[in-house]
Design the sequence.
C-alpha cells in the first residue's frame, strides 16, 4: 500500500481488526441482497460533520451525497450533468428511500464564502457553486443580528435545499402521498447537537 | 423530532450517549481551530461503502465528496455549476489536503447502469451522469472475461476519475511537486477488503 | 388620432391645455441642452406606483426603468441582451446620475407570483423573470409572520435589486467614492407613503 | 430620509401636500380593487419623455415599461430572462389591457447610438441592446435625407417595436379579434407634440 499513507492504512486496519469480525455478516448480506437504505442524506463535505458518525450509522442505512455546503440545485432536466440530481433520482426512484435529510453544520466554509465572498483562489468552481445560495444568504445578512448571522445563514441554506428538493416532481408527489419525508437539520460542531427546521423562523433543538 | 423517524433518532441518541462523552473535546477543538483533513475522498453514495466506517475515521480526518459511481468530471472552468470540482478546489486550495482518494466498490449500481443501460425511470439525471463513464466501460466489456466485467468496470471508473483529477492544473502541479498523492481504491463489500490501483492492469490487494 | 382611444387623447389634451403653456420653456431647454436627470429610478410597471406622480417630478428629473417587480439582474457582461443593465450603463456612465433608487410597492403582482407561483398563462416570460427573486422570497415566506409576508417580500426584492446594483463594478466604485447614492424605497399604495431601506431588518418610515 | 437627497424628498413632500389630499380615495380604491390599466405603454427611459406627464395620467391608468430606446424584442420563449416580454405577458394576459402603445421621442440617445455607434464606455450593455435596432436604422440612414435622419430613425424604431409586438402570438391573436390595439407614437420634446404612426411612410400629427 505504498501510495496510501499512514492515517488511512491505520484506520483501515482498525476497521479490519475491530469492526469486521462483528460486521462481516451484515456486509455479506448487503452484498447479496443489495442495499435498501432508509434515508438519503445530503450533507457537506466538511470533515467535522460526517453523517455516519453523527447518526452512528451501520452499513446499508444511509445513501449519502456530500458536496460543498450541502446544496441541492433545483430540478433542471436539461440532459446535462447534475450530480446531486442523479443521486436523488437513483435514491428515490431505484432505492425507494423513505426519507431525505439535508444536514447543514456550524462553521461551514461554503456558507462563509456566501457571506464574505469566495477567496480568489477558488473563484473557478467554488464561486459559481456557492452562488446558488448567495442571494438568500445576503438577504439574511441584512435582516438578522450580526452575531446570529453565521448560523442563520447555514439554516437558510438548508431551507433553500429543502425547497429545491420540492421542485423535483417525483419528490413532491411522494411527499404529498406521505411516502417520503423531507427534513432539514443543522449540526452544531462544538455542542455535538442537532437542531431541526420547523415552521418557525429558526431551527429548534431536537426533542 | 417529530419529522425525523426512528432509525435516525436512535442513531443520534447512540452518538450522544456512547460517542459524545469521549469525542466532545475533539469536536470542540475542531470547531475552534477549523478543519484540517489529511485526505479528500471521492466515494460513491452507496450506503454499503461508507468511508468513515471503512477507514474508522475520526471527525476532522476526511473531506468527503459522494456521488453516483464516484465520478470526477474533467476540468472545465466555464463558470457553470460543477459540484465535484468545487469540492476539489476547496479541499486542495483552501484546506491543503495531502491526498485525494477515489474509492469505488463492488455491486455499484451506477457502473451496472453503464454496462446495461440506465433504467428508463432514471433517464433524466442518472442517464447523463453515468454517460461520463460509458465509453470506458463499454471498452472493458469488449476486452475482459464476462465473469470479471463488473469488477473490472468498477476499477476502470476509478481509473477514469484519477485521470480526470490530473486534468485540473492545480492538482497535476501539486502531484508533480510531491505535495499531493492520488490513490485509487476499490472496496469489496462481501469481503470487507480494499484493493488498490497500481501500474498493473487490475487492482491489487492492500498489503 | 383614430387608432388612439379616448383616455389617452383626453390626457394628452389636458397636457397641451393645462401644462404646456407653463412647461414649454423647460421642454425647449431640455431639447436644446440635453437631459441631465439627477436620479435613475428602477420601478415596477404597475400603474399604481408611478415615479413621476409620487415624486411630483418635472420633465428632466428622472431617468426611469420600469419592469415587472422592479428587478435589477446581477452584472453579466456576456454580450447578450440586458435591458436593465443597458439603462444603468447609459444612466450612470453617459448621463452621470448621482443617485439610483429602486422603488418597490404594495400589492405587487410580480412579488405575489414569487410567493404563490406564476399563473400558468404567464409561464413563458413572467415565470423566468420572477424566478430571479423567488429564492429570497421563499426564504422570507418561511421566516416572517404570515400577515407580514407580502410587504416583507416586497422589501426583500428591493434589497435584492440594491445588492445586484453593487455587482456592477462601475456602480460600486462610484458609490465607494461617494459619487453615487443607492436607495431602496417602498410605496404603500393605500397610505400613499414611502418607507426606506436602512440597516434594520424592515423598512422604516421616511422622516 | 437621510439617504435620499433633496429633489426627491421635496417632490415627495409636494405629492403628500398637494396631491394626496385629493388623490387618496383613488389610491385606496386601487389598493383594494387592484389595478385595471387601460394601456400598456413601452417608452424610453429618457427623463424628458415621461408618459405620466404627457398623458396627464392618473394612478391606475398606465402600465409602463421603460428602457433605452423603447425597444420591444421579438417573441422568444426560451426560458431565459426577457424583461419586456414578461411585462407584455403580464399586462396582456393578466391585466387585460386594451391597448399597447410604443412611444419614441426626439433626441433619443439610444437611437443616436444606433446611427453613430455606441461610445466605448457603454459597449458592455448599451452596445448589444441597441444592436437590435441598428440594421433598420442603417437602412434609414441610406434612404432619407440627412436632415431628417434622426427623427426618421426614431420613428423606424417605433415601427420595429410594433412589428415585434406582433410576433407574440397572444398579441397578434387579440389584435386580429379586435380586443387589443397597437399604436406607435413619437414625442417631439421641443414642441411638446405627439405624432402618430399610420400607413404613411412618416408619422403624422395627432389630430
Sequence:
Amino acid at each position: 500500500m505504498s501510495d496510501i499513507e499512514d492515517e488511512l492504512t491505520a484506520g483501515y486496519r482498525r476497521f479490519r481488526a475491530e469492526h469486521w469480525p462483528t460486521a462481516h455478516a451484515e456486509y455479506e448480506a448487503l452484498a447479496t441482497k443489495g442495499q435498501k437504505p432508509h434515508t438519503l442524506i445530503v450533507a457537506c463535505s466538511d470533515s467535522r460533520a460526517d453523517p455516519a458518525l453523527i447518526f452512528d450509522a451501520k452499513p446499508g442505512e444511509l445513501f449519502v451525497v456530500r458536496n460543498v455546503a450541502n446544496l441541492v440545485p433545483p430540478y433542471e432536466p436539461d440532459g446535462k450533468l447534475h450530480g446531486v440530481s442523479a443521486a436523488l433520482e437513483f435514491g428515490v426512484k431505484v432505492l425507494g428511500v423513505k426519507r431525505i435529510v439535508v444536514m447543514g453544520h456550524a462553521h461551514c466554509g461554503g456558507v462563509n464564502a456566501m457571506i464574505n465572498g469566495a477567496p480568489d483562489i477558488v473563484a473557478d468552481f467554488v464561486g459559481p457553486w456557492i452562488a446558488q445560495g448567495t442571494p438568500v444568504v445576503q438577504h439574511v445578512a441584512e435582516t438578522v443580528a450580526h452575531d446570529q448571522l453565521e448560523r442563520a445563514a447555514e439554516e437558510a441554506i438548508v431551507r433553500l435545499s429543502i425547497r429545491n428538493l420540492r421542485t423535483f416532481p417525483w419528490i413532491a408527489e411522494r411527499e404529498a402521498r406521505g411516502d417520503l419525508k423531507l427534513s432539514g437539520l443543522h449540526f452544531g460542531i462544538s455542542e455535538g447537537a442537532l437542531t431541526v427546521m420547523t415552521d418557525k423562523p429558526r431551527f429548534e433543538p431536537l426533542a
Notes: The radius of gyration of chain D is 18 Å. Chain D has a mean pLDDT of 93. The domain at 35-205 of chain D is CATH 3.40.1050.10 (Beta-carbonic Anhydrase; Chain A).
